[in-house]
Amino acid sequence: MKVNCEYGGGCDLLFGTKQETYELPSSSTAWTVGELLLWLAEKHLKTTQENFLQGDSVRPGILVMINEMDWELLDTTNYVLKENDTVIFFSTLHGG
């Protein structure tokens, strides 16, 4: 299954790209956003996991959108991904 990820607001620095299409490994169960987060952190994160994850979710200050909809409306980490979904990670925290 393919999923499109876009990174902005500093999240692009965490992953070294502004957008990427990933081919997720085959699984006997459907992929959730929570599983995607852990997989991204393990396989594609260019820095420590603490900069992206807190527990089993993203750090506070990282906005997550799925197909241009706030993931809070889609059951956050429990959302079951579909082929060619677009997941956007955007940091709202900025240093000064």
Give structural attributes.
alpha+beta; single chain; Ubiquitin-like (UB roll); 96 residues; two-stranded antiparallel sheet
Brief description of this entry?
The chain has helices spanning 11-15, 33-43, and strands at residues 2-8, 19-23, 53-54, 57-58, 62-66, 69-70, 85-91. With 96 residues, the protein is α+β, with helices and mostly antiparallel strands. The protein has a single domain, classed as Beta-grasp domain (Ubiquitin-like (UB roll)), CATH 3.10.20.
Kindly describe this structure.
There is one protein chain. The chain is of the alpha+beta class and 96 residues long. Helices cover 17% and strands 31% of the residues. The protein contains two helices and seven strands; from the N terminus they run βαβαβββββ. A five-stranded mixed β-sheet has the order 2-1-7-5-6. The chain has a two-stranded antiparallel sheet with strand order 3-4. A hairpin with a 2-residue loop joins β5 (62-66) and β6 (69-70). The radius of gyration is 12 Å and the shape is globular. The model has no long low-confidence stretch (mean pLDDT 95).
- Category from helices, strands and their pairing: alpha+beta
Give the fraction of residues assigned to helices.
10-25%
What is the CATH architecture annotation? Roll
N-end to C-end Cα span: 40 Å
